[in-house]
Amino acid sequence: MDITTKLTFLEQFPLFDALSPEEKRRLTQMVEFKRLPKHHTLYVPGDSSDKIYFLVKGSVKLSARYEHEREVIKAILRPLAMFGELCIV
User: Fold this and answer.
1) pLDDT band, very low/low/confident/very high, at 87 (cuts 50, 70, 90)
2) 79 confidence band (pLDDT: 50, 70, 90)
3) SS3 labels along the chain
4) CA 30, 4, 84: angle at the middle one, nearest 5?
5) Contact 12, 34 (CB under 8 A)
6) Residues 64, 18: Cα–Cα separation, whole Å
7) On the CB side of 59, how many CA atoms lie within 13 Å of its CA?
8) CA–CA separation, 79 and 61 (whole Å)
9) Mean pLDDT score of the chain, rounded to an integer?
């Protein structure tokens, strides 16, 4: 994916407003776009992660499994949502 497409995408997030154009260009070198299959598990509670995810298209279900494998849906995310940031804190 080209740098212009990545910059255009990043500029949609207020999180990056304070960055200079050069800082945004450097950030694009770390941005990776991936298409994932439906029902794909990115990570489970307890996993370590060094990634922040930005949803471009589709939806993401954030859930956890508790007693007797009961699933509790915590949120349904839509495009332009950000998640995973708590794993890297």
Assistant:
1) low
2) very high
3) CCHHHHHHHHCCCHHHCCCCHHHHHHHHCCCCCCCCCCCCCCCCCCCCCCCCEECCCCCEEEEEECHHHCEEEEEEECCCCEECHHHHC
4) 35
5) no
6) 34
7) 7
8) 12
9) 87
For residue 86, give the amino acid letter. Answer: L
* pLDDT exceeds 60 at position 66: yes
Cβ(40)–Cβ(32) under 8 Å?
no
How far, in whole angstroms, is CA 84 from its chain's centroid?
6
26 φ, ψ to 5°? -65, -40
**5, two tokens:** 């497409």
